[in-house]
Every structure is written in C-alpha cells, then in structure tokens.
Q: What sequence folds into this?
C-alpha cells in the first residue's frame, strides 16, 4: 500500500504513525493529561496556540494558588518593616532565592535583580555598563531588538558597536568569524541569544567561556531558550542573563529578571537613583546621595511585589513536570512538523513552505520561522495569512518578530536595500517596507510558529491542515 501523506491522513492516523516511528513519543502522554487538567481552556475555546515564543501559557493551578495566597494574607509595600511589609519582604526574598536555585546559580556568585521584563533587564545593563571608546559592544546579527537597542547606550558613551554576522543559510553563526571578531580588539560587552526568537537556532554556549577567556563580559539572552530548555548556571557561566518569566510559565506578566555575576554587578554604574535604590539622599546638594549596596540599587521604586510569589509558584510548576521532559515533548512535535513542512508540496511538486533556519531538530528549539509559498515559489502575504489563520483559530506570529538581523539575512535584504528606508523625516512602517521590498521581488516578512508546554499533536496537525488549504493557490490571487 502506498504511504499516505500527512495531507491525506486523519489526526489519529498521523499521531499513531508518529507514535510508532518515535518510541519516546508514547512516554509523553503525560502532557495530554496535563493539558486536559491545567490548560483545558485551549480545547474549550478551540484555540490552536502556536506563539509560545511570544508568551507562555499558565496552568490553572498557578492562578488558584496565587489567588489563595492573596486572599488569605495581608501584604504591604516591602519597603517598610511593619508586619505586612515584613511578610511581603520574606516572600520577595524567597522568590529571589528560588530563581537562583531554579537556574542552579550559586548565590555566592550570582544575584537576581527583578525587572519588569527581559527588556527592562537589558535596559539596566545598557544604562549601567561602563561602555567607553576602549570598551565596545559586540553582538551577533541574530538578536532581539531589546538587545540591539543596548547599542544606543554604547554609542552615547562613544563605544564602538560591532555586529558579528551569520555565515550559513541555516541562520547559525560562524563560530570562527565570531572568535575572530572578539580577538584582537579591546574587550567589552558581548551579547548573543542562547536561542533565536526568530529561527529557533541554538547558538553554541561554549562561546560564553571562550569570550570570557578573552576578557569580554558576556550577556546571554535566555528569553527564548529557557521556556523549553535547561539553563544551568553552575555549568555555563555568563555574566548577565536577562529573561521574562511569562515566557516560561505564562503568569504573571510584568516580571523579569537580570541574573548577574556579583563581580560584574560591582562594575555597573546606575545613571540615576529612585525610591528604593538609595540609602540616604539630600535635596540640598548636587550628588548628595548614596546608592544602596547590591540588588536594591538596581530595582527602581517598588517591585511588582504581589506578583513575585506567583513567579515562585510558576517555577515550582515547571519543576514538578521537569524542564527536560518539556524539552523532549516539544522537540518530538517540532521534528514531526519540520518533516511535514519540508515534505509538503503543490500538485506541480513545488514546495509549500520555505523554512528559515535548520530543517532538522539538531541544535535548535521549538520555534520555526517560514514563508508559505505558492506553486510558482512566490510567498503569500503575511497579513492575509495571519488573518486567515486567526479565522481557523490558529494563533501564530508574523512580521519580523523584533529580530531584524535574522529577517534581513533570511530574506537576503542587503544594506543597500535597507539603507534608503532610514533617515527620512517620517518613520517608515513595516508594511511600507514590505510593499517596497516586494517591488524588488523580495520579502521582508516571515511567519513563526512556536511550541510549548501545552502543545499537543492536534495543534500541529491542525496547523498543517490549515497550511494545506493554500495548496495550488496563487499568491497574487490573495495579495
Ligand atoms: C530572545 C528574546 N529576547 C528578549 C525579548 C524581550 O522580552 P520582553 O518583551 O518580555 O521584554 C524577547 C521577547 O520575545 C525574546 O524573544
């Protein structure tokens, strides 16, 4: 009997095929039970959620436990020493300890600073790092805009900014080129993501130790990595680790952290002070203030204190499942998707997808960037696709996902094409850039799907069914 393609199979048949082909898949049945128990709202609303790199989903028990805590206790602003304040301070500090414990960071070596999100953590780094003409900022092309944005702080202090390019069509970095870029120049701050929020590529973590050996301070952006991977700071020892908690366990939003090595923290200089960051200050003299020691000097005003215990609950939830198990589950589903996507064709044999980045599961995460192509190889309009997917109950991401370096490299948009968009009196929108790029036969957009803790087989299967509706349709017919 001829093998039936994914397009022709039903969901049960396709999942059975995966079960028999990937023996480990049967062991992940736990996640289907977990979804029914904790993420029931997905099925109750018919949602296919495929934007975990945008934001994770919370388990219902996280909400219940947090609400029960808030309903049963009285908490005040932790900046005082009264009983309600003391009770809150205890929970804030317990959460700080559990963050370090979760990432296996030695408290004698690292501290955790609470911030509003990963971008807030990056802002603290940008404004406090001692950039100078001899202390540059080096970063890979593959970075989120909140890491790119740190270059403005560097420039303001007269520091050289150096981008280290991609080298392969898989959107990986060329490790030799990066090494060369870091050697033979005075060291400063080097930033790269553990996992790309664009392509899901996981960059070699051995670069952390190598760059440090060359004298660089290393910022490892872990926002897209930690939701489905173990970050073990007893093994990999970056100096600065920014992240957002909602990306790992969905709730609460509005809390992130900068995990920083104490030795580097001592070299950061805050450009201002705020409530909570100073020991004493006087209004009667310039510079009459003392910053607090340690983390307090970096947490402006009042931290999001009622939400912090929910971070502890979220970490416990992930620990109760095991991040390695989550990793294995999402990678099995990612492997199935990559195979289905690269095997999908139009009647004339032309591919239905172009996957940006690796098409196998080696050194990558559960985030896939792609273009949907018609039978002449032309890409469908990203906005029409997002609307169409939405109508089918599918939440995916389109645009460039705040990662212009990956988008430009993936879509072959050279500097001479990008340059004319800048320096105009009026800002150019992404849509205007997209339309202009199309005139040159280029695409500046992409689509992205990303998997997480509650993804099940039906989600990825429904995505493929939806994509299949574009089979043998023309991009112009839809544009
Ligand atoms: C790799 C990476 N870094 C940084 C950020 C910024 O995170 P936030 O928007 O929570 O500040 C994101 C968000 O998607 C990300 O994926």
A:
């Amino acid at each position: 009997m001829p093998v039936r393609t994914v397009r022709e199979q039903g969901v049960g048949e396709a999942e059975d095929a995966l079960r028999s082909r990937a023996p480990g898949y049967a062991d992940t049945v736990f996640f289907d039970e977990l979804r029914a128990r904790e993420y029931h709202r997905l099925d109750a609303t018919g949602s296919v959620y495929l934007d975990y790199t945008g934001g994770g989903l919370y388990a219902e028990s996280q909400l219940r436990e947090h609400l029960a805590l808030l309903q049963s206790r009285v908490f005040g602003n932790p900046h005082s020493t009264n009983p309600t304040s003391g009770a809150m301070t205890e929970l804030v500090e317990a959460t700080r300890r559990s963050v370090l414990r979760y990432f296996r960071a030695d408290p004698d070596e690292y501290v955790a600073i609470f911030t509003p999100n990963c971008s807030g953590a990056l802002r603290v780094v940008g404004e406090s790092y001692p950039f100078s003409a001899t202390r540059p900022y080096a970063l890979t092309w593959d970075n989120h805009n909140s890491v790119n944005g740190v270059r403005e702080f560097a420039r303001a202090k007269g520091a050289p900014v150096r981008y280290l390019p991609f080298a392969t069509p898989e959107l990986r970095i060329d490790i030799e080129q990066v090494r060369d870029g870091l050697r033979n120049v005075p060291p400063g701050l080097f930033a790269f993501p553990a996992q790309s929020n664009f392509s899901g590529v996981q960059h070699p973590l051995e670069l952390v130790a190598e760059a440090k050996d060359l004298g660089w301070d290393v910022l490892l952006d872990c926002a897209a990595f930690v939701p489905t991977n173990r970050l073990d700071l007893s093994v990999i020892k970056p100096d600065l680790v920014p992240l957002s908690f909602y990306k790992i366990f969905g709730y609460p939003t509005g809390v992130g952290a900068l995990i920083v090595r104490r030795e580097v923290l001592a070299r950061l200089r805050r450009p201002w002070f705020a409530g909570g960051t100073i020991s004493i200050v006087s209004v009667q003299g310039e510079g009459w203030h003392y910053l607090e020691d340690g983390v307090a000097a970096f947490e402006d005003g009042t931290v999001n204190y009622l939400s912090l215990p929910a971070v502890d609950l979220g970490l416990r939830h992930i620990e109760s499942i095991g991040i390695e198990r989550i990793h294995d589950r999402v990678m099995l589903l990612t492997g199935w998707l990559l195979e289905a996507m690269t095997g999908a064709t139009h009647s004339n044999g032309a591919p239905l997808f172009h996957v940006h980045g690796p098409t196998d599961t080696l050194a990558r995460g559960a985030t896939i960037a792609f273009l949907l192509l018609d039978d002449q190889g032309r890409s469908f309009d990203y906005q029409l696709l997002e609307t169409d997917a939405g109508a089918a109950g599918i939440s995916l991401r389109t645009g460039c996902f705040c990662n212009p370096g990956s988008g430009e490299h993936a879509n072959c948009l050279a500097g001479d094409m990008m340059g004319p968009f800048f320096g105009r009196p009026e800002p150019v929108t992404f849509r205007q850039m997209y339309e202009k790029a199309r005139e040159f036969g280029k695409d500046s957009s992409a689509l992205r799907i990303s998997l997480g803790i509650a993804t099940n087989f039906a989600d990825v299967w429904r995505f493929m069914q939806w994509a299949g509706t574009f089979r043998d349709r023309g991009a112009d017919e839809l544009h």
Q: What stands out?
A: DSSP finds 21 helices and 15 strands in the chain.
